[in-house]
Amino acid sequence: MSVVRTEAPWVRRTLIATALLFMALFLVLPLAAVFAEALRKGWEAYWEALKEPDAWAAIRLTLITAAVAVPLNLVFGVAAAWAVAKFEFRGKAFLTTLIDLPFSVSPVVAGLIYVLVFGAQGWLGPWLAEHDIRIVFAVPGIILATVFVTFPFIARELIPLMQAQGNDEEQAAQVLGASGWQTFRYVTLPNIKWGLIHGVILCNARAMGEFGAVSVVSGHIRGQTNTMPLHVEVLYNEYQSVAAFAVASLLALLALVTLVIKTVAEWRMERELKALAELPPEHPRTDTPAIAGVHS
């Protein structure tokens, strides 16, 4: 069956040229400018900016924050997606709405909420001060704010994927005598692995690049509570443009690596979804390796 094209060739060429122009102006050119400015004074100045104690402290805090926030969101995202996609219960629509809440709330507002709850004049502030517990203007507050703004990413990647796959394989595994953990390990997890990786990548990218919520709860204590985005702002405001762009280039490199991994994960996930859609709907796939592993 031949595909009928209604648009003229010049229309296609114009649209492609326009898209390439926008990508060049708003993606390639800014990235090139970041690296050019970072290396304006040479590699020695670039490395010195990254080795500076405050910069290293910001890098370390960013990695620690992501290392804590991403696993927490991984557990929540898988549990929430499994509950929403595989079960029917009261409050399911409300849970889905709560998952989307960070998408609709400004990160600055989220940071202010934590200040209101855990700050010195907040609801729990006096009790925390009594017990010498610091949350706001300390690392715990940064982690909490990061968890809040990033927790929808994994769940939102997995929910449509798990809904598309249905419950047939899980039910077949249970018929074969699998426990809930075995069903998850041998059936559910292999089927969602690429969607899970995709969600983790997006969650990690947002955790490392978050500015608004972290800016409110961090207190901007140099060398202690400044993450990489906050450190870039401090350096730029102090007219240390080369150092600011050096740290920003590191964030850009992390973003590019994330983009490559995300593209690979999306490609693999699309292949698996396409293969799933081509299966006959009459019978569950009881002959798949996953269910065979449960049976064994």
Structural classification: mainly alpha
On the 0 to 100 scale, the average pLDDT is 85
Q: How would you sum up the global shape?
A: globular
Order of helical and strand elements? HHHHHHHHHHHHHH
Query: Cα distance, first to last residue?
Result: 46 Å
Number of strands: 0
Task: Count up the helices.
Answer: 14
Largest sheet, in brief, is: none
Per DSSP, what share of the residues sits in E-state strands of 2 or more residues? under 5%
Percentage of residues in helical conformation = over 70%
Assembly type of the chains comes to: single chain
What is the CA-atom radius of gyration, in angstroms?
24 Å
> Uncertain runs with pLDDT below 50, 5 residues or more?
283-290
Question: Can you describe what's shown?
Answer:
- This protein is mainly α and 296 residues long.
- The chain contains 14 helices and no strands.
- α5 (107-118) packs parallel to α11 (212-218).
- The two termini are 46 Å apart.
- Mean pLDDT is 85; it is low at 283-290.
Gist of the model:
The chain is built from 14 helices and no strands.
Question: Any descriptors?
Answer:
296 residues, mainly alpha, 77% helix, 0% strand
Topology, pairings included?
Elements: H1 9-38, H2 43-51, H3 53-86, H4 92-104, H5 107-118, H6 125-130, H7 139-150, H8 152-165, H9 168-175, H10 180-209, H11 212-218, H12 228-237, H13 241-277, H14 289-295
